[in-house]
Every structure is written in C-alpha cells, then in structure tokens.
Amino acid sequence: MTDDNQHLHKRIQELEAAAIEQARVEHLIQYAAAGQDLGRYMALGVLYVDPSTRQIVDTNDATIELLGYTRVELLNRTLDDLEIAVNAASTQDGIHSRMYTATYQHRGGYPLTISVHGWLLKRNDRELMYYRLADDSLHRRVWYELQRREDEGSSFQQKLTTLNEITVELSKIESFDTLCFHVIKLGIERLGFDRMGLWLVDTENQLMRGTYGMDEAGNMRPEHGQSWSYVGQQVYAFISGKSDKPLIFDDSPLYNDKSQIIHYGWQVTVPVLHGQHCLGTLVADNYRHNRPIRNFEPELLRLYGITVAHLMELSRSREQATALHVANQLAYMLTEFITNIGHDFRTPLATINTNAYLMQRSNDGERRQKLATGIQAQVKHITTMVDRTLEFVAFQRNPMLTRTTVDLANLLQGVLHKHQSEITAKNILVNFTVDPTLSLQADNAYLSHAVNELMDNAVRYTGERGQIDVEGMSGSHSVTIRMRDTGVGMDADTLKRIFDPLYRGDEARTKRHSGLGLAIAQAIAAAHGGRIRVESTVGSGSLFEFIIPLDGHTQA
What is the pLDDT of residues 490-500, one digit of tens each? Predict the structure, then answer.
C-alpha cells in the first residue's frame, strides 16, 4: 500500500470514528432530552489485572458498556490487547500508582481516548493492579456537562442548603463524642449518603482511629476500638498536606468492621481539614443500596469534611474550657472532701477504733464477731465514699460513650430489680408505665447507672407505704424518663444545690450516702446532650425527669 493509500485509509478510519462518536453524542442528548436518568453514564470502568502476566482477571459493567466487549471476551485478553499507547508509570508515596492517558480499541473497531489511574491492591489475598478507566471522548465530556448542569440546578443546591442547616444543628452539640455520632447520623439521614464512617488521625502512633460508622444492616455502630496504620496509604496525602482532593474509587472492595471484603462498589474518602491541619477522614460508599455515584457527591462530602473539622475544633475549644471548669470543680471537691472527712470519716473511724479495742479485750466469740461485723460495715462505708469520688472524677475527665440501641423498658426493669428488696421492705407501691417498643441510641451502662441513681434517691427518701411512679415516653425531639415519688421533698435552697458534687441536703448526715449520685447522673445526662429537670415540694415528694434529645443537641 502506497503512502497516499495509507493516508487515505487512516483518514477514512478517523471519519468513521468521528461518525460513531457523533451518533453516540446525539443518542446521549436525545436520552437526556427525554428526561431519562443520566446515572447509567456515571460509573467509571474498572479492570483488575494480574501484574505479572497483564491478564485481565475481572471487570465491571461500565467497562463492558464502554469498550463493547462481553465479560468473557475481556477476561480472555491481556491489558496489552486493549491499550494501544501508554505513557511511563510513576511511583507516589510508596504506592505503585500509574496515571496516564491511553488509546483503547473499542470492539466496534474505533479508538477511544481513556484516562487511566492504576494502583496495586490486595483482593481475596491476591495482589492485583486496579485500573480505573475514564472516557475522555466528546461523548463523555458532553455527558459530564449535562450532568453537572442537572446537579447544580437541583440536587446539589438542595444538598448545600441542607448542609448549612446541619452545620447549625451540629454546632449546638458540646460533647465531642456526641458530635462524631451525629456527623455520621445526619450525613446519612439528611445528606443522603449510603454508608459512612469517621476516622481521626493519631499522628503520634501514625494511626487512623475509629469513632462511629454504619453497619451492614443500616444501624449506627461505635468503632472506637478500631484502628489502622496510614503509613503508605493514599490518605497519607491528606495528612502530609500534599493533597486535599477526594479519593474516588469505583468497583472498589468494601469492608465490614472485621476488615473482611463484603462487596464491591464505589467509595469516596475526603479529609476532615481545618486550615492545613488534617484531623481525620470521612468515608462514604454505596454498600447498602448499590446505586451509582452522583456527580456532586465527592464535592459535597469534601465540603462536609471541612464543616466537620471546624465543628471539631469548636468542640475541642469548649472541652478545654470545660476541662478548666472541671479542674476548678475538682479543687472545690478536694476542699469539700477534706472538710467532709471530719464529718463522714471521723465517726466510722472512731467506731472502727473502739470495736478493735473491745475485740482485743473480749474473749466472748459471739461478741467479737459482732464487733468485727461493725468494723466491716464502717470500712465498706468509707470504701464506698472513696470509690464514688474516684468514679465521678474519672467520668468528668473522660466521658467517652459507647452508643448502642437501648431497650428502655428492659433497662428500667433492671434498675427496679436492683432496688426490689428495699421497695418490698418499705411496702412502696411502684407504678410502671413504659412503652415496650421504646428504644434510643445511648450508652447502656452509663444510662443504667444514671437512672439507678435517680431510683436510689427516690427509694431512700420515700417513707413506708409511699409511692414511686416510673414512666418512659418519647416526644418529637427527646426521650424522657420520669420518676415521681411521695417522699420528704426538698426546699428551694436544696433544689439549687442537689447536683453539686458532695452536697447533701441532710447536713446532719443522718442518712449515709456519698453526695455524688445525682452529680454523676447529671454528668451522664450532659454527656448524652441531655439534662435532668427537678420539681419538689417539702412534704409532698419530688419529680425527676431525665431527658435525652433524639438529635443530640444540648437541651436548654
């Protein structure tokens, strides 16, 4: 074939390819004009390739549609059979990563210009090269512009409005842990992400540490015990300040909380960035509904990450102020504690000393046993005082919650059971009114502890044949545990101080208790974003309401 013939042949091929491309563009425009969903054009092609043989071992539907081959035809080819021209590979951050532009041969005989991003990963314990293919053709660019206009004209604008609303809501949350919980909860419920997780950077140990995520069944899941090294991982680009662009993976392995691959789909990871400082990462994927990624979602998640970072810094500033308050409160407690030793420890220590002296002088076995029992009771009282003080201090320093779905009726029944012997001994009537279907997201152990303190208070101050009403109810914004008793009640001065650590209304200390129970209960309520409300009248009893907001915002 002469040079002129070769040139003519090449020109004909180019014209044929242009005609095919024009037909594809016209079909796309007609498809969009008919109001059809453009989501089918959104997925990126994916190839899994054996790095030693270059054999294609797996692909996805988007690649099949992009290149025109069947799955079987692709799996019988090597990457070299498809790629006509390739640039040199590059290595970045210790990860073998290839980014280049290649010409791929469509099954119909015409070339396609493809942007390729490939990197090495493990799949089913096998090392493979993962290649993500993005069509750079006119068809793809037209689709992108159509999709961008559609997104920016409707969904994206709506989501930005929602993001602004969420920012206002999250800014009201004071507890850092509660903030992390609702970042995921609202990101899924309000921004429409399928499944999410929030990881925090631990630069000292070079780890990413978990906070909260969503499990495979669609339930919120605490992930505080999970961690993984970011060394050599792509998120290191965020931590080192080299990049703030979303990491987008299509047909990527999706994992459960045991690091097991449970599915393949898209995944987007963005930095939680405060200025130049990366606090962590937000991750979203499509495991639950397996829908295509929407064009604006990576950018929406990136903006959410910036918002979350700002709120985290705000929360930490609040916690520093709270820590100062706690330090002052602990100093006050220490003063009160030392003062109370004179009242609370002097009597039991005197009793211990007297009983020990009498035991030394007595040969009567029964009397010695009675004196020893008295000593044990006084030691138990002192130990309880010390333990409750240490417990309160520990919770004030680190109120870390592990939220799960709590069956409220079951929790309240358990608390009642602990006090049943005292209730029976005093012939107290208990009215129990709790919706058996009522549940909430809370730390089961801490919530049980707080309610136990309220019940202990009610039983202690309710006399013979009195009454205690226990109720659990759900409102539009909160869950309320209500406890009403017919006990001695409190005056106005006592009401103002009952949540102060070590405060007791019975200054004569005729009733032995630590003076920390209600302070602990209030601290637990605050850690959940809630509060305890009290009403009381001397001689007519008291009403305690433990209120936990459903949205996690601090109650006024």
Answer: 888 888 878 87
